[in-house]
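INFO batch 0412 | record 1 of 1 | parsing
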Amino acid sequence: MTSKKKPVIGILGLTRMSDPGLYISGEQVFMSGTNVRAVQRNGGVPVVIPVSALAEDAEAALGFCDGILVPGGDDVTPWYYDEEPLPVIGAFRPDIDDAWMKAGQYALKARIPMLGICKGHQFLNVLMGGSLYQDLSLQEGERIQHLQRFSRTYLTHHVEVEEGTRLAALLGAGKVKTNSMHHQSVKRLGKGLKVSARACDGTIEGLEDEEGLILGVQWHPEDLVDSAPVMNRLFADLVERAGKRCGR
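INFO prediction complete | emitting tokens
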């Protein structure tokens, strides 16, 4: 008797150059093991999708996926929201963002559910026509610390989750403790999106759409699956949405 197939979750890959070595050096395709583990422990089959495959043919690269995880990474290329890079921006990778944009556009067309984390959260907003603050220093008002020190498993500030949102159904409405590792944030919301969580300084920490295709969080839940087990629900929700799409 065969077991029920699990939903396949495509994790959009990153690239980096390895240090010169005797046998292995050059460009590597990689992904944080915590993202892979979070998907796997919550019922999905994680598959890292290389940037080159997305750039060449996003449909072929993602056609077998039931859901998509858009992970953290470098800053989003500001050209996608009609801005030039300011001195305060960090490193950005147009090659990766070009490929991810093709992936996002295909996912919207094919109605593949997505979960965005940190950069992924910001990227989904830009995908939907929104914009970003290139640095939190450009955001009005006094700000709390958003780039924590030491362990990624630490909970360092609160977000206020809005009642009646999908995020509230997963984590509960009201104050939720999170980690925080970012210097950019959502500015103008993308079309069809609504805010599901904010930090006390007004920073948008969660967004979602009405159709259940898009959910984004500014923090890193993949690093909290043990220290804050409630965060597993974000990945379980992606797997559940993916399973409904593929009829499993």
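INFO post-check: The longest helix spans residues 94-110.
INFO record closed
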